[in-house]
Amino acid sequence: MWKQFLNKLPRKSQKSDRDSARNPNSGSGSGRAGSGGSAAKRAAVFPASVIAGIEPLLAFKDVSNSEKMNLFISKLSLCCVVFDFTDPTKNVQENELKHATLLELVDFVSENPPKFSEPAILASCKMCSINLFRVFPPKCRSRSTGSGENENDDEPTFDPAWSHLQLVYEFLLKFVTSSSLEVKTAKKYVNNDFIFRIIDLLESDDPRERDCLKAILHRIYGKFMIHRPFIRKCISNVFYKFVFEVEKHNGIAELLEIFGSVITGFALPLKEEHKVFFWRALIPLHKPKSLGVYFQQLSYCVNQYVEKEPKLASHLIQGLLKYWPITNSQKEVMFLGEVEEILEVISINEFQKVMVPLFRRIRHCINSYHFQVAERALFLWNNDQILSLVAHNRQVILPIVFPALEANAQNHWNQAILNLTMNVRKVLTEMDDALASACISSNQEQQEKASSSVEKRKQVWEHLENAASLHPMMARNTAVLVTH
């Protein structure tokens, strides 16, 4: 089919050529499947009545306005052929012709065309589906088996067909956002299956492709209100699978970016559906090892929720404590940063619900031998809002925190941490000198008791060792009767 068009430039094709274009039984373009199967598929994509006998190589400016939509459909049919880009020397002319045709289509939908007819919408969706929807190499769908940190540094895989894919994505974006596209008609073709496969493409290893998909899915969500619940459900399912099954997905950051803008449009009070998504999807996203890849987007989403519904702040802190990392220091630093953001907006009542377990965790972070974790925990006390919360609840919080400060002052190896510890100790002492003195005295008593307990245990062991040395060694195989 493509060679026929190339041989006929620049004159129009005859009727037999048009029939061949509509029902290609042979051609030099090779698709992802066998050539025979691809030809049969392309012939079945568009009925003859849809293409309406228009030569697809004509320019839009060379036809009347009444014929432009038919020419548009004809060009879309031409672009339904998918070439093999693994061999750059193969189908060079055909690739260039398809590239030029895609550029024409992008320009056409960008220049405020007439209202798209239903056949034009069908043809557009078919062309995008044939070119975009594909199976990725196994690497993109394999289960995470490594340490987590090194996997994020893997080199992305770029599709060799990107020169065509980029134009198809640009066409789809402009097509979806065009004022000439009526939602009432388009929703039959931009349907649940189409949207599901768009979301599935976000597993692509190519960041350029994920950026295009993010923009398109965002526009679809904004324009097709009827599909909004389905899109939210699909995103939830992706998150569930990522957290609880595979822990490998390249598009989590992009999906969170989309959802961050969606959250801003939620009406108040929040629906139960949105709260369930917060509890069951967003909070568990703190669990995977690859949190650093999408932490910024996740933090923005949860903060948007807390701004919309302040009562969710305590639930968020409880979730963070549940998934708090024990052996991953970098994640611990990220968690402490998120805790600070939450404490800046939390109400006093919600804070009191979680302050005891929260500051017990902060106490452990202050005593961390990883200086970045200890430093980030001590920096919390530079925040005036946090100091205000602590001051209102100092009778509970100071006895929790002071033992950690005293331990740091006596034993921590890092000089910067020692200096920060002394500064925090000074701030808390100025907050309530009497309470601080009582905490210090109580801590000293506890240390003395601990030392005394250690000494007693040591004396008991020495007594047992001395008693054992006074008796002769028993045979190794001699049975011993132990009486209670």
TrEMBL record:
Signal peptide: none
Compositional bias annotation for Gly residues: 28-37
Molecular function per GO: protein phosphatase regulator activity
Pfam families noted in UniProt: B56
GO cellular component labels: protein phosphatase type 2A complex
Top-level lineage group: Eukaryota
InterPro entries attached to this UniProt entry: ARM-like, ARM-type_fold, PP2A_B56
Region (Disordered): 1-38
Function recorded in the entry: The B regulatory subunit might modulate substrate selectivity and catalytic activity, and also might direct the localization of the catalytic enzyme to a particular subcellular compartment.
Protein family membership: Belongs to the phosphatase 2A regulatory subunit.
Protein name: Serine/threonine protein phosphatase 2A regulatory subunit
Organism: Salvia divinorum (Maria pastora)
Top-level taxonomy: Eukaryota, Viridiplantae, Streptophyta, Embryophyta, Tracheophyta
